[in-house]
Amino acid sequence: MLNLVLFGPPGAGKGTQSQKLIEKFGLIHLSTGDLLRGEITQGTELGLEAKKLMDDGKLVPDAVVIGMISNKLDANKDAKGFIFDGFPRTVAQAEALDSLLLSKQSAISVMIALEVNDAELEQRLLLRGKSSGRLDDANPEVIRKRIKEYNDKTAPVAGFYQGQNKYTSINGIGSVEDIFTSINSVIATYK
Ligand code: AMP
Questions:
Q1: 67 assigned to a ligand binding site
Q2: Which residues make Cβ contacts (< 8 Å) with residue 142, sequence separation at least 6?
Q3: Which CATH number does the domain housing residue 97 bear?
Q4: Which residues form ligand 1's pocket by a CB distance below 6 Å?
Q5: What per-residue confidence (pLDDT) applies to 190?
Q6: What is the pTM of this model?
Q7: Is 128 labeled as ligand-binding?
Q8: Domain that holds residue 108
Q9: Tens of pLDDT along 138-163?
Q10: Which residue, 125, 102, 99, 140, is CA-closest to 11?
């Protein structure tokens, strides 16, 4: 199985690159942000609770996203592999993901981190906010809070995979195609 963690701050291009990877490798895309937005659209209780935190730029509790990922892994038993996008976002989530995959005789193949500086991220998110309709993309204060949550809680997840020799970082600034080429060269060495 090819199990990729696509890593990086909000606005790094994880969603864009995920779409291209799905097409090329036939992987199942698991974006906890998309799954949470789906819950909000359906008006579930989980969605209502998550929305308050998301609109404020804060992470939702680990147990919520771990539960969603566990359900998706169970629902896709015959998958060739998965792209984890926006998950894991804390070390506790990374540990839980390892256990979930281990129970299915599987493991993460590699984490690929997209590196983009904070000024570029803010620009990209504000631009995306004009068309995404996402409240958390529209407000510069919320954007800065999301980047701070990333630096405080999510950046340490890189160390977790470095400890397993599964971490690679690439430059996330440039054309979509060039970045995709870099991602493919990483995958070629881990596949
Ligand atoms: P994203 O679409 O990945 O930018 O996520 C949007 C928002 O959903 C984040 O700012 C968080 O509030 C929430 N979220 C998404 N994934 C996670 C996660 N793995 N852990 C905690 N909160 C998450």
A1: no
A2: 55, 56, 57, 135, 136
A3: 3.40.50.300
A4: 10, 32-33, 36, 53-54, 57-60, 65, 86-87, 89, 93, 136, 146
A5: 80
A6: 0.96
A7: yes
A8: 2-190
A9: 999 999 999 999 999 999 999 999 99
A10: 125
